Amino acid sequence: MNEQAVGQEKLDKLKIGISIGDINGIGLEVIIKTLSNPKIINFCVPVLYGSSKIVSYHKNIVGLDLLFQQIRNAERVFPDRVNVVNCWQENVNIVLGKPTDVSGKYAYQALEWAVKELKAGYIDALVTAPINKEAMQMANFPFPGHTEYLTQELANGKESLMLMVSDTLRIGVATNHLPLREVAGKVSKELIARKLKTFEETLRIDFGIDRPIIAVLGMNPHAGDGGVLGDEDDRIIRPAIIECKKNGMLAMGPFPADGFFGSGYYKKFDGILAIYHDQGLIPFKLLAFGSGINYTAGLSAIRTSPDHGTAYDIAGKNEADPDSFREALFMAIELAKNRKEYFGDRANALVRRSKIKSENGIEEEEEEDLEDEIDDVLEEDQAYEEEGYDEEEQ
Fold first, then answer.
1. Containing domain of residue 316, as a range?
2. What was the pLDDT predicted at 54?
3. Which parts of the sequence are annotated with region: Disordered (predicted)?
């Protein structure tokens, strides 16, 4: 082979790291199915973190001819091949379809190695294949999931945001992986304000939306129904929204979640902040499952993942659909480019809002109507701040 490994200075495409996830699940199946398309190499240099032995094992199950090159680290890569960083050398026992301490240990090891090289600048973005929380706990992984671990490693002490993304929908979750009984105690005016700030910055910088409009869902049924069904929406969430508006942000709500999605009103917004996990993920997966991805906003680097788990029930059966992983890969490329452009030349990074509106089914001539709606909501919130707010108006 005449091809030589090269450094970043000789590359004209991004290096995208991929942690292989749980070796007993479908992670490597969807990775191999995606990367076996030779056109992928035209868009990025894939760098897998795991083991060439594990990759070969799953490649034989899938039955696809994926050519890859083993490398020590991603500082120098083979630009026209899939690269594999061997994070361990020993043979590993694979038990398809089950969480084990072994699968947790090596998923953790691959993730740590990938994050280390992401922080070092060896790769431009990271796509994480699914892990299993039970297996990770067996391996003494002290976090509920990827998001919390990556926040510690890459948020630089700032607020991160779990963000579900599709072509037409972006839903953030204020409280991440938290038992429902603990949500009310976690939600505060400060938390909502911080999450909205992270969301707004992400939409501007990573998604190129110069004036994003964000809806906030209510925590209680009917957004509290004037305090009858809980006072958190009026006491905590609405004041946080008002504070963000005073700082120039276009935030609206809180909206009752059922009517907000049922009426299709969600299509008018660039982003939606849900208060708790299932409030955001249930509508997202109903509307975008298979085409959506998970993005950890607010980090110092780009990280995406597919919107599904390890799918143990079909592991090893060659039945997994790679669409969501493929979307996660291309989203990582797009977001990494957007961020580089924003900080390199902000004027060129901004994307016309008409593109975003067209994705959401809002025609160009509706711009004035949408601005009128913004003004109406701003006036409503100003009235609430000065005189109180009648929930029935929503």
1. 1-155+299-344
2. 97
3. 355-394
